[in-house]
Target: TonB-dependent receptor
Amino acid sequence: MGLGSVGAKAQTEPRQIQGFVVDSIGTRLKGVTIRLTSTSDTITAISSNAGYYRFKDVKGTDIRVFYSMLGYQSVNRALSSPKSSSFIVMPNVVLRSQSSLLEGVYVVKTIPVVYAGDTIQYNMDAFTFRANSLLEEALKQLPGIQVSRDGTVYAQGKPISSVQVDGRKFFGGDVLTATRNLPADFIKSIQILNHRDAYITDRSFTTEEPEKILNIVLKEDSKRISFGQLTAGGGTRERYIGSAGLNRFNDGQEFSVVGSMNNTNTSLFSFGSPTGVGEREKSLLDINDFADPTDGLNNIKSLGFSFSDNLADQTQFNASYSFTRKKNFTEGNSILQSDYFRNRISNEEKYDVTNDDNFHRFTAELKHRFKNHDVLEIKPVFSYSRVYVWNNRKRHVNNNRVTNRGTYQDSSYQKNPNLDVNIQYAKAFQKPGRKLLGNVSLNFNSQRKLEDVFDRYISVDSMPVDPIQSLYEQRYFIQQRNGTDGIRAAMSFVEPFSERSTLEFSYNYELTDMTTQRIVEDKLKSEELGYFFYVDSLGVNYNYRFRNSRMGLNYQYTPNKAFKANIGFGVQPVRLTGFLPREDMQYTYENVNLVPTAGFKWRLNEETDWSVDYMGKNNQPNLLHIIPVRDNSNSQNIIVGNPELKAEFSNRISTTLRKFVTSKGQYLETNFAYNYVANKIVSDKNAVSGSTIQETTFKNTDGYYDIKWYYLFNTPLFNENVQLDISGNTDYYNNLSYVNDQRNTTQQFIYSQSAQLRYTWSDYFESMFNANYLLNKASYTWPYPTKITGQSLLASVATKGYLGDHITLGAEMSQRFNSGYASSFMNINPTIINAYLEFSFLHNKRALLRLQGFDLLDQNKNMGTYSEYIGNDVYEARNNRLGRYFMVTLNLRLQKYPKNKK
Model:
């Protein structure tokens, strides 16, 4: 739900306002007289035994609340912006005792804490932050929000994917740029929005979960300001960091420039995604593991700018550009065990990989409202990446008969331009509720890759009385071009035919064309013959087209404010075609899916809502699955595509319960989802007899399903200075594969539980305690029943103390316990200790000198563990990470207000 729609709704509905009254030590006060006035109402209430009060059906604007009690100073609070919700929670009102009976007035500046359906709003004035804190530090103190060491922000257990400032994207929505540049002192409120893609016209049929967006509302006196920061630092082991940022806000106009260079694995840009570029998915479980979460050692250089302005009264424009060069060096070891009947193939590797990634990204957005209230939006996104990879591996592969020892080297160069253009037009009508929305999305993606592969090993066959030894050498030079062009067009028309009912007609069309061309040169053969020798059997010239259209009809019924129902039906023809020009062969798959959809939402009371949804969706195979060629560039793992694959069709039903207990300051959310996939694309793997070689292709099968449940709960304990956040999730996967033509079922059960306790003792001392538990249990049925149970327990504590107004001391410690994994290197129990000392000086503490020690016990350097269990495969790996170092940094904050502020 967008901010505009929330505000418009609240203007026409009566409000409910409630809260608590306490004394100066936090004891809740009974018998306080509370009087509310507005342009339409004057209402009086008396606080309960628990200090609780509530006003229902408050109408009008200019709302003021007066609190009075004999022996206490009176308090007057004005709601400065109450339009954003019909349900308002006031921060605790503190009444201070007075020795005389003369009435005094104690005025407290306040902005309500708001909970409104898809929006949760945090009043920043209700929290205490140190002067000059950045937004990232302030977010850590808000209930229900967590921030990991790499800067990923989680709200109600889900990652924040995009950031806005006053409703506009900041730096293209980049999360890290906003949280590590914006001062908390400038922010009036933080809003967490559940946002769906604005370009989904057929919303009743979407299977996409809403993403979490962070909207930052600036204070009025911070809408016209210039600010920035300069940072420089150096440390042991040649560690360094340098960054600069300049920002200008001017009543809706925004301009920002930021740049950074470092080798401390600190990223400036996340490119709108919490996972960044080229990194593994991060988990909420690792938020307070005070280790560096990035595998390998990184040297990062980044630069970017952002601009936003109103080109005219009804025209908004914003654009951003970012560039990052990230050079990563990772070394580690892994083991892959593949079980077959009376045959286990084990592949142990030691490797080092250098990745040099140069990434450019440009985004723009133009929004214009015409005089007749029609709206046009155009959003282009262009990105270009150039990647160099050097991959060196030492292998030891064996089964019960054959042993291979050798090396595998792979160097590649790849460039990838990509352009996405989204155009949307919304037609306005005089009749309320009537809507016409159309959009067109275009995508153009190209990839050029040059790859040099060298594979060499000595093979020993121990089966004969006299073992047979042989040498295998293979060197290929691979040139590959891939192109993906797509178009998606959609139109939706909504017609109300009663005060409580609407009917939506929708049509969606999607067309995707993929082409791939590959030429493979056998360089060893070329050297032998004296001319270029190409392996025809490995060459590819393949065209693929996926066409999908959907016609839908959706009925929405809203009899009252407490219930809403959506019932829809869609017809979805699907056609996949593949063509091999060289063989003059065409593969075709056609199907028609009938897609019923349903959604129900109940507002059980002012604080509780419950929803149930059913959705269906097609998933097309990717290029790896369908290219009809035998790819043996990796001699131990040969891949063969299947051009006759069908599209998957998933069916998902989910239910969500959310409750905001305002009388206790608590929030609860829980979700249960079941997903069944027909024509699931699975691997079909065979062991080549008498060798350690495995060959994999793909096929469709039925029987896959997954079940997922999660919950999260946050509450204050005893008083607002103690905040508890707990969350947990349970995932069960019934995955399928084929091994030696036998159906194999892999059942995986993942359970995690997290608890975090934050305690603010005073304005000068705060601490945090955290505990996380993870259980990963996997079993597969073929070639024989096998079970693996991996467990991980993390305990951590962090504390920060302020010695006066200028000195800060901090320390962090985490201890992890791992057990049950197949490889000994996975069962490690690292202890991470970090410490720092900060000294602030200059006017308004604009300068900050920091001395920090990271990983004092030097145990993080081998912590990059990773495990995966699929089919009959058990894969476990450990990579290097950044180890112990000490660093001194100096940060200087710049800030300038205009001479004549409004």
Observations:
- The radius of gyration is 30 Å.
- The longest strand covers residues 468-496.
